[in-house]
């Protein structure tokens, strides 16, 4: 058995250790959307999307309680989940940027099932009903049930996913 690295030893249990390890983990990129009581859309880029259960069809993601989207997500019954394609790097960056006009003129979207804002051009999307919001540090893990969606998106299944790795949005390589 080898000794732990200096980095791991000195940062044991630290946020820096967790971040540095997860930079090595490639994750799919999604945008989560919701609408407030006046039907104004909000959204953010998420790399924490997970399938939880097939029956019932549940998924989860985490969101910081300091996020500008959290006040709406905290009270929304329904939300949208959008799987981004490698051609949507700019969209991912827009929805990740603090203070950005995420639903400005450059963002193509439309109202979807249950009033969920649906982004155009995504690889796939789901409209989901929120079933739980679980406290986790300065975040909440949101668990939601898929109630509608399109598994092929507008490209009819002909796209490649956008990934997040080493702190950057990336495309798959052959």
Structural features:
174 residues, alpha+beta, Pnp Oxidase, Chain A, 7-stranded antiparallel β-sheet, 3-stranded antiparallel β-sheet, globular
In the CATH hierarchy, the third-tier topology is known as Pnp Oxidase, Chain A
- Rounded to an integer in angstroms, the radius of gyration calculated over CA atoms is 17 Å
Could you give the distance between the termini? Answer: 35 Å
**Which strand order do you get reading across the main beta sheet?**
3-2-6-9-10-5-4
Query: What is the correct CATH architecture?
Result: Roll
Q: Largest beta sheet, briefly?
A: 7 strands, antiparallel
Mean pLDDT: 88
Number of H- or I-type helical stretches: 4
What's the number of extended β-strand segments? 12
Provide the succession of SSEs. HHEEEEEHEHEEEEEE
> Spans of 5+ residues with little confidence (pLDDT < 50)?
none
Oligomeric state of the chains in view: single chain
Tell me the β content: 35-45%
Mind explaining what this structure looks like?
- 16% of the residues lie in helices and 40% in strands.
- The strands form 3 sheets. It has a 7-stranded antiparallel beta sheet with strand order 3-2-6-9-10-5-4. A 3-stranded antiparallel beta sheet has the order 1-11-12, with helices on one face.
- The protein has one domain (27-171): Electron Transport, Fmn-binding Protein, Chain A (Pnp Oxidase, Chain A), CATH 2.30.110.10.
- Strand 7 (109-111) and strand 8 form a beta hairpin.
- The longest helix has 8 residues, at 15-22.
- It contains 4 helices and 12 strands.
- The termini are far apart.
- It is an alpha+beta fold and 174 residues long.
- GO terms for molecular function: FMN binding; riboflavin reductase (NADPH) activity.
- InterPro entries: Flavin_Rdtase-like_dom, NADH-dep_flavin_reductase, Split_barrel_FMN-bd.
- Residues 22-171 form the Flavin reductase like domain.
- Pfam families: Flavin_Reduct (PF01613).
- This is Flavin reductase.
